[in-house]
Fold each of these.
Amino acid sequence: MKAFDATRLYFDRAADQIELTDNMRRLLLTPKREVQVQIPIEMDNGELRTFIGYRVQHDNSRGPMKGGLRYHHEVDLDEVRSLAALMTWKTAVVNLPYGGAKGGIAIDPRTLSRRELERITRKFVDNIHDLFGPDTDIPAPDMGTNSDVMAWIMNQYEKYHGFSPACVTGKPVELYGLPGREEATGRGVGIFVVKLLSRLGRKPQNTRVAIQGFGNVGSHAAKFLQDAECKIVAISDASGDYYNKNGLDLSDMLKHAQAHQNSLAGYRGADRLFKSGDLLELDVDLLIPAALGGVLTMENAAKVKAPIIVEAANAPTDPGADEVFNDRGIVVLPDILANAGGVTASYFEWVQNRQHYSWGLNRVRQELDKALGDAFESVWQLAQERKVTLRTAAYMLGIGRVGRATVLGGIT
Ligand code: NAD
């Protein structure tokens, strides 16, 4: 199933619950604007290559559009469209004054030099600088991009528009960034896990965790959960799966990754599971997909043993697998809530850039914990009241807020 069709299916389940009309469904689902641009650059060896970049601006009825920029070789318009819609519901679930957008460039950043990445990023900004900005659409990091890329975006944007640190978030702390932004998505995942375990009457000490992905989100979620006394027994990244039934040595793994371009390749301090996909089917208490989309499918859903799944990645679960999980009583905390810590911290960064004021790490963490705690309680209560899954409840909350803002603002 295509990525946008999957998002649509989740949307429709919630729209049925709130009895949204067909015309409103069409209005809320249709993106405001989709842009595809050519990015020709000269490679380090003098060769000319052309890449394709996308930005989809899905909805702005609640405020400027907000969403990450992904660098991955499989990026296409359908995926970006689907992720942009997810951002609209996500910002609404956490009640941020934002709409949703997403961008991406179809490149494999691991095969490019830093200078090539910088040239691609700057050329992309040259192409779309008049379509984004502090009051219209604010990019942020996603898979394959980081604070360096955000700094290049800001610098290139300012060549056209003057001083505008609020045009992008996730910047380096030394350059109008926010202390705590980098950890925020993973920290948020951890906060939600602790709240969910408590609601389900489980203890962190008795929770064995498997995490797919050891990048920004996966590594920070792992750190937070280990501090919360969960036992991290398995972690994977693009180089393979690493397992220790007694708990992995996380600080050793982090040290290895930092010394090897954020990769666990060559790490010898754990067992290997050998078959790709094994981690998703491990006998654990909690599974956290924190890498790619579409990894939980009809093929492996019946083999998943974890009774709880927390979707740190965007769109890791196909709708067919989601139904299998519901039938089997597996509790799924959906992406539009589970990974909302990143956009919430991005909101704090944007507010401070606009006020020329900066908070310390403690205040950022306090505000983040409060915002995410409130969002979790709203979704949990709605799910209980309406006897629906946490995913449907989160979509009901998000779609309801966007729908009301759309009507209040006047449609035609
Ligand atoms: P990242 O690029 O920092 O890390 C991605 C990780 O996934 C790396 O460890 C990589 O090795 C691993 N990976 C890639 N292919 C894999 C495979 N086949 N099997 C196992 N691991 C694999 O990306 P990130 O920022 O951590 O983002 C991860 C997910 O979280 C994405 O779905 C992203 O959309 C979502 N997300 C990120 C943020 C954020 O603030 N960074 C916010 C919200 C959602």
Note: Residues 143 and 359 are 26 Å apart (CA to CA).
Amino acid sequence: MSILPILIHPDPRLKKAAAPVDDITEELRQLARDMLETMYHAPGIGLAAPQVGVPRRLLVMDCVKEEGAAPRPMALFNPEVVWASEDVTTYEEGCLSIPDQYADVDRPAEVRVRWIDPEGNEREEHFSGLWSTCVQHEIDHLDGKLFIDYLKPLRRQMITRKMIKLKRERARA
Ligand code: NI
């Protein structure tokens, strides 16, 4: 397994819609494993393929937070929200592509998501709490959307300027 470099905003690859996966090859299964390792290492609770420069509809997540609880690594190919609650919840979100920046985002509190697992089986599950916020955030990545796109333009521009500066500093280091 290997840890993959994570793209930092702004990057045109983070703004593009990703293509569906029609055949889950061993290569894509390996990518899912590498993405999980990259996510745990960051550390983070979710990661989408476009964030590692792969324009395919694949995301990984594990939102188990309880100390000592068993991890639940998930890899979702072609995930789709098939139902969303009218109830909205606000969560302070962050993103591995936008390091150290957090902001409140409103999203449906609960969603039902359908996807294909790495073995090729169709799966469907109801998500609530942090899992719901996380899966919606990651599916947004597959559509070229970032959590800062929900913020007011001024706040978004401020964060983007910080990220440009961060990238410049990292390039120099
Ligand atoms: Ni993100």
Note: The beta strands are 46-48, 58-61, 74-84, 88-95, 98-108, 111-116, 122-127.
